[in-house]
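Hi support team,

I submitted a single chain yesterday and got back a structure, but I'm not sure I'm reading the token output correctly. Could someone confirm the output below corresponds to the sequence I sent? I've pasted both exactly as they appear in my results page.

Thanks,
R.
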Amino acid sequence: MKDPHSGDAPGGGASQGGATAGAGAHQPSAPQGGRKDGARLGNGPASASAAQHKNKSRKRRKRRGRKVYSREPAAAAAASPPVSSQPKAPQVQPLPQPAPVQAAAPPADLARRPPQPARPAPSGELPVFAALDLGTNNCRLLVAVPGRPGQFRVIDAFSRIVRLGEGLSASGRLGEAAMDRAVEALKVCADKLGNRAVRRARLIATEACRAAQNGAEFLDRVEAETGLSLEIIDRETEARLAVSGCGSLVERDTDGVVLFDIGGGSSEIALIDLSRQRSPRLASHIVSWTSLPVGVVSLAERFGGRDVSRESFRAMVDDVAAHLSRFEGRGRLDHMVAGSRFHLLGTSGTVTTLAGVHLGLERYDRRRVDGLWMDRGSVDGMVERLLGWEFHERVANPCIGADRADLVLAGCAILEAIREVWPSERLRVADRGLREGILSELMAEEGVWRRDRHDGWRR
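Hi R., thanks for writing in. Yes, this is the structure output for that exact sequence:
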């Protein structure tokens, strides 16, 4: 779902302007200085030695005049009109909106996809793209520039747990304190975006704003207070973006994958069949998908997340299993589940937390977690281990902490329900998702990975 700087070279425009102004001003000043020097030197005898002395003195004074002028480029530049070589302030233009890919059109009240401002990157610099994901639990931003084909380099990032969906399952509305937290986080994102010449940006909101009665009203407040226009995406688009963000973690000898994204208010699941010819776009191989109306925040609020017994944990698993039983396309990969070329791919805080605890990290390290393989026994062992911990023990673990201590077991319950339907021997962990999917799609639409004969990038 990032890192990060571009900008004009300091002093580049000033040095060019100074050189241009100096060349123009020096042309008239030399003859004028020559006349004054001649008047002073003409009082002596007209001898050959005097003439030679006069010529040498004139040359010395001309050289000194040039040196004196070169020490004052700033004054000359200030007196002269602006030089055309100075970069002009970029003009803000509304962006054309990319057409949704394999996504059903959302209802009219959810079709919030306003154009985001675009600014051209300075000449010679890579274009900058941004993706923001406001979820039920987190607010995340990634800013990146394209790298090698199909890849990008993160140049700035932001992530904060805001719990926007706190209390939503009981009241049906976003709470005031939750909205305040989200707005404060979004102000940080707005500052980061405002400091960069972003060519394309996509700013999305997911389940909390989809489900809340005041979701659209909240986004109006966000725009008024931060200047950011967020769109509420539908569940199919959310599932597709999660798949797009994880393409590089699916190896070429893979036949089938069940990708899942356990969120705060919903959980997206996509079944991907790669047994036939594989295309570069992983999302084009989705054969079935679903979005469960349950996530770690909503499940923990209903069943309790602080003190979780084995009975309450099993009740959470059964609740999720009931939703999965209504997923008609869940059997589309049954013929390959038992094979070695099939695996699960999890992209969520739940699986990254499990991976961090499994590795015994003293501090969460994305480089060690993203792409990690866990076998069935390791996942079973980690779930058992977390079930055996009291709340304060979960808080004390550096990969869980106070922000996730009351949510991690609800996430484990969703994971267990998924593993019961698709009992894979292997699980791959992805510390990436919606934001990475957004960036990949924006860059592909802009054609930044198509080589150009002149500068290597097509802009």
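A quick pointer for reading it: The first strand starts at residue 93 and ends at 94. Let us know if anything else looks off.

Best,
Support desk
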